[in-house]
TrEMBL record:
<feature type="transmembrane region" description="Helical">
    <location>
        <begin position="83"/>
        <end position="105"/>
    </location>
</feature>
<feature type="region of interest" description="Disordered">
    <location>
        <begin position="1"/>
        <end position="24"/>
    </location>
</feature>
<feature type="transmembrane region" description="Helical">
    <location>
        <begin position="806"/>
        <end position="833"/>
    </location>
</feature>
<feature type="transmembrane region" description="Helical">
    <location>
        <begin position="915"/>
        <end position="943"/>
    </location>
</feature>
<feature type="region of interest" description="Disordered">
    <location>
        <begin position="1127"/>
        <end position="1164"/>
    </location>
</feature>
<feature type="compositionally biased region" description="Basic residues">
    <location>
        <begin position="378"/>
        <end position="393"/>
    </location>
</feature>
<feature type="coiled-coil region">
    <location>
        <begin position="308"/>
        <end position="371"/>
    </location>
</feature>
<feature type="compositionally biased region" description="Basic and acidic residues">
    <location>
        <begin position="1129"/>
        <end position="1139"/>
    </location>
</feature>
<keyword id="KW-0812">Transmembrane</keyword>
<keyword id="KW-0472">Membrane</keyword>
<dbReference type="GO" id="GO:0005886">
    <property type="term" value="C:plasma membrane"/>
</dbReference>
<feature type="transmembrane region" description="Helical">
    <location>
        <begin position="162"/>
        <end position="185"/>
    </location>
</feature>
<feature type="transmembrane region" description="Helical">
    <location>
        <begin position="689"/>
        <end position="708"/>
    </location>
</feature>
<feature type="transmembrane region" description="Helical">
    <location>
        <begin position="494"/>
        <end position="514"/>
    </location>
</feature>
<feature type="compositionally biased region" description="Basic and acidic residues">
    <location>
        <begin position="1152"/>
        <end position="1164"/>
    </location>
</feature>
<keyword id="KW-1133">Transmembrane helix</keyword>
<dbReference type="InterPro" id="IPR045122">
    <property type="entry name" value="Csc1-like"/>
</dbReference>
Amino acid sequence: MASLEETVAATESPRQKAISSSRFASFQGKNRDERMKFMIEQAEGRAKKVRLGEGVKSVFQASMDDIGALGIGMQLYFMLTKYLALTFLCMGIVSLPAVMVNSYGHGITSKMVDPLQLAYSSIGNGGVNSDTAASVRSCLPIGDIDCTWKTVNTPLTSNPKVVTWIVTLCDVLYSFIFMCFLFFYSYRAKKAIKEHQNKHLTPARYAVMVRGLPTDATEKEILDHFNDLYDLNKRETYRKLWFGCWWGRRHKVRRSRSKKAANRNVVSNVDHLEGSTTINKHLYLNTWIAEVSIAHPTGGLLRTYLSTKSLGDKRDEIEQLIKALESEKTLAPGEFKPSDEKLVHSSKEKLKKIQAKIDRKDKKIAIIKKAISASEKAHRKEKKMREKKTKHSTSRDKLSAAAHAAKAAATKTKLPFDWEACECAFVVFNNLESRRRCMQDYRQSTHWLAREGQPEELRFRGTFPLIVTSAPEPSNIMWENLEVTKRGRFYRQFVTNMVTVLLLIISCAIISAAQSTQEKFANKTPPDGLCDQSLPALYYADTSYSLNAQKKPIPWTLDWYSEQTCTRGDSGEERYYVAYTNKIKNDLDSARLSYGEQYPDPARCVDPCISEKSTQECNTLPCFYYDDLVKGEGMSCDAYEASNVLYCLCSTALTNSIKQYGIVKGPKKLWETKPCRGFTKDYLIKNSFMLFAAAIVVIVNFLLNNILRMFAVFERHSSESTRTIRMAVRMFVAQFLNTAIIVMLVNAAFGLGKVKITLFMHMYVVAPIYRWRKRRSIRTQAKMDKLYAGPTFDISQRYPMVLNSVFVTMVFCGGSPILLFIATVASAGVYWFDKLSILYLYSVKTTYDEILGKVTLQMLPWTLAMHLGFSAWMYGNTDLLKGSVLNLPILTDKLGKYDVLGQHGFLVKIVFSQVMLMTIMCFAVTFGLLLYIIFGKLVFVVLRQMLTFLKQIALLPVDLCYALFTKDDEARAKEAERRQQKKKKKAPVVMLPEFTEPFIMSVSRRYRPDEGLGYQRCRVENTYELTCVWPKDTVYENHVVRSAGDRKLSWETMQAPVTSYAIEANEKYRYPVKQILKAWKRVQEVRNREHALEPVRLEKVSAEVDNKRENRVETAVEATEIIAIVTETKSEEDSEKAPAEVTRQAETAEQADEKPVENCPKEE
């Protein structure tokens, strides 16, 4: 028999344990450095709790299972980046032959290539550039380029058609690799989701979300409803629910799924509810329900207080600082310095100011103002009416007073917000089997027709049909939006989409304006070499313009002679006198004159009077000496406009002005040169538009990022995962259209170096130094926790980035396969650096569910369809790839008439063999995706049944032959031996983890526990059981203490930021709930004053009252009776401080039986 001391120790509550070993008790006898060291240890432990592998593993030791412990959404994200890196690497290796043959093309000149020279590896380098073909020196027989494009010079082939097929077949191969990736990732993702549900425990695995409850439903009623239905001591039954309705009686389950489970226990420990202010934990002992959390309609008040949470956090921090300083003063008076005393005084002053701000904001909250002002107004009106009452009041007056009291009672529940009302509820079962039975019974509850025929025993109070669905994770719930309707959310999403489209239209308009401006400026640009070569040669009348007869250099500098006057042009425009400073203008050599077919009558423009609007066509010197210069030396005969001379003058002057006066003052100084004003204006407009066009992509993406985040709050999503995936998809679509479709090259920045180096420096250099400096001045545990916690890992920013990279790569890799290697580096960098960040820097405070991965799985196959479509379009460019034409007159003659793009349309390109191949593949993928979306589930079910049937048919001859040729005696002996061994072998015991009990779970023999996290595997008879112990002493925020070696409860093994569905368990909502409870108390006090009316007594009723009026009297009296009872109940509850959640109907009935009503009129 246990002694008295053992009995007292055994029954000691967790809170009493916490008090005996609290933070202040642990500080007893310690100096300031020891106290700081203790706080640092606690902060590091809490920070590691919400990081990958609880911060005890390296980046190479942390596996996908460890990432999955933070949420299946996180695991699917890292699986995607990892597999994408490997897939793009394989695709890049396959594309190497295409990269090689592209690099040997001549379609891109040195003036067109990008700074990184990646354009040489694209199909844009195919064929022969027109400038190259016009140069006799480059083409055969003088040069080494076949400008007729009949042959190509590549290591693999010399036939340009073979080059086309090399590019096309490489595309087909790496498209097949990407399709294999889609199937593989889909299989692995679905398998990971299934394994996560079996391996990783989360609160959502034990919980359901219940809607359809009446507003007056209480915690006790909901608990009793589900506790009675899913008592595991009762035999399992179910309804077949034909067509989802009530048809069919309840059947007993012959083979229950949990029949072999050995542990079926009721709740015996409520430590998970310790410190909860909205849940009565004593209700759950010895029940099958671990928790019931009710969501209340707050009328937007919760959202309002969330916006003022920063002030509340500051107030709490200062209060904790004052408390810590005063405790230090008590514990170690000798170490308490004058600066500490000054800090206490200044902190109290700050606390007063912050509290004043909070009070001012509370007074401005419309809901509370409305509730209190309306109640006070009604109270004043009632008081005024009571003052007017006289002793000789008639029955009519008394009747009016009673009717007013009835009206007040009727409007009592019409409040802007009601913290006692029920919006929905989250029910957490202690056993997985209870939840399975619940989901089985309510499997059709989301359909309105099934709810109409819901069985009576499943209805709440036998009347209200319930909607029961899987609950989101506690950290995933957005409590402030649970009361928002689907229609309201749809309207908000519509506004968001309109703003996104408007921003994209603005971006498209600006980029189009920039391109048109650039084209206009390019039209005014002279041919290459005109200013420094062709124009001096034209004036000198010979190609030896640079040296005179004495072999001295001749300066060729254009200048404007303002003192010289010119007549106005044909249109009245002003002309300027522009000539070379050397005054050279030689006549042409008549003996060398010869003209080509392109310009049989060339024009030599050497008139010094020039206008900006002059469009006269002029020719260079080779057009006059065609035989000598063009045919003999391979020079090109070009044409230019007379106004291009001003461009030569002003471009040189601008360069010199910028060198002399700078990039800002240089163009201003050039404005003083009158002929160059038009050039300066065009130059500034062109560069401004180009800079703005380059920046508009980044600006719009930045605006979309911030606007969509603001509108995510406006859309009022009910869970963090839904909000994240909606925002991520919208941001991805907007960024993809803005980056890839609208402008393809402006924002082509795939480099990761700067960003990743910055992140690396922050993790390993900046953050440790900052923590080391800051921790010396921290005196409270809360601030120390924030210092070591790190920023929150926001997956909503990473999914759009990854999806945008995948879509951009797949759309354009057909034309530029080098993008595949860039995408490989990008995906690998994202995987490893994000993994490092959640190990050492970021904290994961939200458990994302699988909706993020499922939406990604639905979107990724469309990248393959888009890739094949874009590749088919690009491969149809006959200037880049030479292909074989198919004999399809129907497409070219008849269908070609309907192509709006005419000769450049797709129907003209499809006749080429390579385009036809890519087009067929594109249509096959698109058609398959549409079939899967429409008939996917049905097709897979039919295919599965067909495969099973075919397998049985294929194995039937084998079974028949085995039965015919096997001896009966031998078969019977083997069967008897098998049955005997089966009897001897004892079936293993199945242990399922229970939410509130010590963690224990049956595992396989090959299972390897993670000992670093405290898991241990032991064998009991023929069963392997997995348990978990605390590796070190731990103190929870609610002061529950765990010692090293103690067994963890099941909810304690969950690596989830929040393990309870109580709203205040989520740190985000603690301050708002605290303020709402205060506001609710104020509203209740006003309501109590309003309805604390004097009982209306109708002592004498005159005989003149007829039957109708008599009925009105009885009705009014009944209303006043209810008011009297409720008032008395409230006063009793306030005086006795009863629990917040009780059954209202039972209380009212009991009090009505115990105390007779005294407000009824006396019978005479």
